[in-house]
Write a structure and sequence with these properties.
The complex is a heterodimer of chains A (237) and B (742). Chain A is of the alpha/beta class and 237 residues long. Chain A has a single domain, classed as TIM Barrel (Alpha-Beta Barrel). Chain A contains eight helices and eight strands; from the N terminus they run E-E-E-H-E-H-E-H-E-H-H-E-H-E-H-H. Chain B has a domain of 223 residues. In chain B, strands 4-5-6-16-15-19 form a six-stranded mixed sheet. In chain B, strands 3, 9, 10, 11 and 14 form a five-stranded mixed sheet that branches. In chain B, strands 1-2 form a two-stranded parallel ribbon. In chain B, helix 8 runs antiparallel to helix 9. The chains are: A alpha/beta (237), B alpha/beta (742).
């Protein structure tokens, strides 16, 4: 089976536990203003699933302590059938599967793939359909919630990850809204706030793409700490 | 039985010299964590403060604090020296004052004279006179060198040859002195002399008998040296302090006698632990005192110095002495050899602060206790001072009582010695092949005259054929050159004390080396997969290459080019083996550069991989800077493919990651680093230098060295005080690949 892949990172450590081989799947159905991987919006390289499997398996010696493969992107679940095909082979070798997704599509294909995952890193971007429409050019909020429900039903571990952007979702009130969406889910193991950064800006220039947030600065560390502390309080209470 | 052995489990080690048997019968394995460790005592802190002040003064004076220009370095040429006699627990300095350097002219008097002059000193006339009619090792070598050998040496195809300084890389079994005492060792050597004296007097046997005479002479001198400090080492050591002290006297005698490039102390922590354990059980030692003794030994080691010239420093940057100290590993029967003292040695990086020496080398096995592995990872993350070598691939060849000489060279302690051979620049061999034997920088005809390639797209098969011819010529010349060097070194600068602490019937290994592996692999890959066209100057010399199209680059786990790298090493090794080595030495090969990758780059013209003339090579077996673009594991996987069986002298890989790629907190970082080392070594890889730091820190340290008095980093098989590197070397380190978050 053929899939479309943008690039690899053989030493990924943010995308799940242990040492992970990250596969950046090509193509995305969203156009987030703060995307830090716009290079994955294009078609990518055609890679056969056997070839991808053979490539990943070379890194098995580093997959102890919970490590494994993480499919990210782009929106990896657009190619759910392909991911299912590759994952089945990897699982036969005892390799841990994670996916990093915006939860933007949910049909039988995605459901089948999710059930193979040890971990879903869910990029919950916003808490209203309006904001999705405004900043991602597509309202997928209800699909995201449906996906979370599905993952809870199947008892698949989830880490929620939200990028905090200056002037967009950086108030305590915003944090409360996120918390209200995810509280109560038993399968959510972590809720991580990630600061918006300008490191991806170079890619926009290189690709000659308009950068909607060109005038934004890095999210301040102090403010992140305040929000994180506030979130910790909410979780405790 | 000797009274000093009371409390030890006896065995065949009491009947003959067999330190390994003593260790295996007596050591106490430890699987716990570091929580038992003691912190520095006030005594240690005060003594360390004095040492730190001396080091500061040494740096301020341009790298050399003082030189004794009147005496020739030897065991008895200086009065006892102290840092602070009342506070010291372990005694002994190379000269009468700490950091005062001694002159050691046995390698060559001119080198000593030049070193003195470079630091504003003048070698004393009486000393010059006494060497006027004496043949040094250097004199001997140059009496015999052929025109061709001089030429390859001058152009730098072979560089760093030990023909004007001590060859080093010999590890005396210093533990023997502690366990047996000198009188017993002397008695054994006398017996050997008697036995060999009964054999027929071949040239080989006569040479060995003279060697034994020299050994015995220096064994007596070592006893006298120790007596001058107030200790009688004719008998075995009775306490921990004595064991460490006896062992250190033996090491000290060795570095007083000769100034070899690398003088490892061996594998001593498990041995010392046995004494500590016995004294703790007897109630005459506690944890804090045990740590103090280890601290004191390490402080002494940090003061070992040799007088070098600046050209030497270009090759081996940062004034290293490679007091390599190996620890951990497994026994042949599969038991970890980790003891509490393995932790205590690592703990000195906290009690005394990070430093480049001793060159602590972890003999890593997948089966080492997890607590110890985690502590090692923590120490790497905190200090960037230690390195890792794969016990699981070395143990089958060297047993469980080997140590590491210099950066990566394994040898069984007391049973094997090495003839160090620096390295050959194989990237330059390719350029010479394309230029028909001419040097691409000077234009001089160096090798045999051959066909010069045209200014048309290079044909891979034709290039390989030409390379084969020149590599064969080079390999033969290289072995022959080393044969001369070591013949003369044995004759004029024999390591009497070190060799007296070896079995008389020692196995000899001749260690060849290559550098430029990644440059040559990428160059061949470019010729094979892209289009490379030579560019000539007006004299018809190829001085540059036009590279069109993309090609696979070593360091990305791509077999197309990685297999070329594997082939280069295997092929060159098989070529070396065709020429017999001096004194029946066994050939071995390393892929290691020390820091000479900068100098080698400087002496090498543009290469077909697109590297510009003069640009530094990557260190050791590393991929070229920035060309490993698929992440750290891909880079490690490429290096892991190199065949250790043809590179038994070591395959060096220096690896830098930023702290935040390893994880957000210390626990995650430690766990990932352990997993990474396990993963790399499970693929039969050999060596890993680990640095966990940010590039920004190094840049800041270059601009504000005063803020980083002890910034230690791993370079290539050793650690170095970053501020002792010259600017060029600092920049090269900064330009290396740092695996970081995207």
């Amino acid at each position: 089976m053929i899939g479309y892949i943008s690039s690899y990172e053989s030493f990924a450590t943010m995308e799940g536990p242990g040492i992970r081989f990250a596969v950046f799947m090509a193509g995305c159905n969203l156009r987030c203003a703060y995307c830090h991987n716009p290079d994955t919006w294009t078609d990518g390289h055609k890679i056969d699933s056997n070839e991808l499997y053979n490539h990943i398996i070379r890194y098995k010696p580093y997959f102890k302590n919970g490590g494994g493969v993480t499919f990210t992107g782009g929106e990896p679940i657009l190619q759910a059938k392909y991911l299912t095909d590759v994952s089945r082979k990897l699982i036969a070798d005892g390799i841990n599967i994670a996916v990093d997704t915006s939860l933007s599509v949910l049909s039988d294909e995605q459901k089948e793939f999710y059930t193979l995952c040890n971990l879903v890193i869910a990029d919950l971007k916003f808490t209203t359909g309006k904001n999705y429409e405004k900043y991602c050019k597509k309202d997928i909020f209800s699909t995201a919630k449906d996906t979370l429900n599905f993952l809870q039903e199947k008892n698949i571990a989830v880490w929620i990850r939200t990028v905090i952007i200056p002037g967009v979702n950086d108030t305590k009130e915003d944090i409360k809204n996120y918390y209200d969406v995810i509280k109560g889910y038993k399968n959510i193991e972590r809720f991580e706030l990630k600061p918006f950064h300008t490191m991806g800006f170079e890619k926009y220039e290189k690709l000659n793409l308009a950068n909607p947030f060109y005038n934004k600065a890095d999210m301040s560390q102090d403010k992140m700490e305040i929000l994180q502390n506030y979130l910790n309080e909410l979780v405790k209470s | 039985m000797k009274k000093e052995w009371q409390g030890f489990v006896l065995g065949k080690w009491t009947e003959q010299i067999d330190v390994r048997d003593f260790i295996l019968k007596n050591y106490t394995p430890y699987v716990g964590d570091q929580s038992f460790l003691a912190t520095a005592t006030p005594r240690t802190k005060e003594l360390n403060a004095k040492v730190q002040e001396l080091l500061r003064q040494e740096k301020a004076k341009g790298g050399v604090l003082d030189i004794d220009t009147k005496s020739i370095s030897s065991l008895l040429s200086f009065a006892p020296g102290y840092i602070d006699k009342d506070k010291e627990l372990i005694f002994g300095l190379q000269t009468d004052k700490p950091l005062k350097r001694a002159v050691n002219p046995f390698g060559g008097i001119r080198m000593s004279q030049k070193s003195c002059q470079e630091y504003g000193y003048e070698l004393d006339n009486s000393l010059m006179d006494s060497f006027r009619y004496r043949t040094t090792h250097n004199d001997g070598v140059f009496r015999v060198y052929t025109e061709e050998m001089r030429k390859v040496r001058r152009t730098g195809i072979i560089t760093g040859l030990p023909d004007a300084y001590g060859r080093g890389r010999i590890i005396g079994d210093y533990r023997r002195v502690a366990l047996y005492g000198m009188d017993y060792l002397i008695e054994q050597k006398k017996q050997d002399k008697k036995n060999y004296g009964a054999k027929s007097m071949t040239e080989e046997n006569i040479r060995l008998l003279e060697d034994l005479y020299k050994q015995l002479e220096f064994m007596e001198q070592l006893k006298t040296m120790a007596l001058e400090y107030g200790d009688d080492i004719s008998r075995p050591a009775e306490t921990t302090r004595e064991a460490i002290q006896w062992l250190y006297y033996a090491y000290l005698g060795a570095v007083k006698e000769q100034n070899g490039a690398a003088n490892s102390i061996g594998r001593i922590s498990t041995f010392i632990d046995i004494y500590i354990q016995r004294d703790i059980e007897k109630g005459i030692l506690d944890e804090s005192k045990a740590q103090e003794l280890i601290d004191d030994l390490v402080l002494k080691i940090r003061l070992v110095r040799h007088l070098r010239t600046s050209s030497y420093n270009d090759l081996f940057a940062g004034d290293p002495v490679w007091v390599t100290m190996a620890e951990a590993g497994m026994t042949k029967s599969g038991k970890p050899m980790v003891t509490k003292t393995a932790f205590r040695v690592l703990n000195t990086l906290y009690t005394l602060g990070p430093a480049a020496e001793p060159n602590i080398t972890i003999l890593w096995s997948e089966n080492l206790p997890e607590n110890y592995k985690r502590y090692c990872a923590k120490v790497s993350i905190d200090t960037d001072s230690i390195q890792y070598e794969n016990d699981d691939i070395m143990r089958p060849n060297y047993g469980d009582d080997y140590a590491i000489a210099c950066c990566v060279s394994a040898m069984t302690v007391g049973k094997q010695m090495q003839y160090f051979g620096a390295r050959c620049n194989i990237a330059k061999v390719l350029l010479m092949a394309l230029n028909g034997g001419r040097d691409e920088i000077s234009g001089d005809q160096i090798g045999p005259v051959g066909e010069v390639f045209d200014q048309t797209k290079l044909d891979y098969d034709k290039v390989i054929k030409a390379y084969d011819k020149y590599a064969s010529w080079m390999a033969e010349l290289y072995v022959n050159t080393l044969n001369i060097i070591h013949y003369m070194h044995d004759k004029y600068a024999y390591e009497r004390l070190m060799m007296s602490l070896h079995d008389t019937n020692v196995e000899r290994v001749m260690a060849f080396g290559i550098c430029g592996l990644s440059v040559l692999a990428d160059s061949l890959s470019a010729i094979k997969y892209a289009s490379v066209t030579p560019i000539k100057d007006e004299t018809g010399l190829i001085i540059d290459y036009k590279v069109e199209g993309d090609f696979p680059k070593y360091g990305n786990d791509d077999d197309r080019v990685d297999n070329l790298a594997v082939w280069i090493a295997e092929d060159f090794f098989s070529k070396l083996k065709k020429t017999k080595a001096y004194r029946n030495a066994v050939h071995s090969l390393s892929v290691l550069t020390i820091t000479s990758n900068v100098v080698y780059g400087k002496k090498t013209g543009a290469t077909p991989d697109g590297r510009k003339k003069g640009q530094p090579f990557a260190p050791g077996a590393n991929p070229m800077h920035g060309r490993d673009s698929c992440g750290a594991m891909a880079s490690l996987n490429s290096v892991a493919k190199l065949n250790y069986n043809c590179c038994r002298d070591g395959i060096s890989n220096t690896f830098s990651v930023t702290p935040n790629i390893l994880g957000d907190n210390q626990t995650e970082r430690i766990e990932r680093l352990v997993t990474l080392i396990d993963g790399y070594f499970s693929q039969k890889a050999h060596h890993l230098n680990v640095n966990v730091l940010n590039r920004e820190k190094l840049i800041d340290a270059m601009e504000h060295p005063e803020n980083y008095p002890n910034l230690t980093i791993r370079v290539s098989g050793y650690a170095v005080d970053f501020n002792k590197l010259n600017k060029e070397q600092q920049l090269e380190v900064i330009n290396r690949t740092f695996h970081s978050r995207m």
